Amino acid sequence: MIRGSETNRKIKDIEMAKLVQEFAEKIEHDPYQPGITHPEIYPDDLQEVVEDVLFLRNFEEMTIKVSKNPDGRSIQVEVLNRRMNK
Fold it and tell me: Which residues contact 16 (CB under 8 A, 6 or more apart)?
């Protein structure tokens, strides 16, 4: 019989493995390289772009272009430039 603590540890190990995999994919695949336009995101998601570039990828500054889409609800975001301290 498996103890509850062993089951919980296995569940937490699986969750941690998923988290590590997601983080590795974010670092490996950089969707916010200069010149790439994200044509339809919502204003609340802009915070995620900033967090990704400045905190996950550790850039010190970035220049972005934000435009409102014709639908009146979503926006386009393009990273024009980003700089990392050496």
Answer: none
Query: Which residues, 6+ apart, have CB-to-CB distance to 43 below 8 Å?
Result: 75
Q: Mind spelling out the 3-state secondary structure of 33-73?
A: CCCCEEEEECHHHHHHHHHHHHHHCCCCEEEEEEEECCCCC
Cα-flanking dihedrals φ and ψ of residue 81, to 5°? Answer: -160, 155
Task: State the DSSP code for 14.
Answer: H
Instruction: Give SS3 for 1.
Output: coil
pLDDT tens digits, residue range 58-85? 999 999 999 999 999 999 999 999 999 8
Q: Dihedrals φ, ψ of 37, to 5°?
A: -100, 135
Q: Which residue has the tokens 């272009």?
A: 65
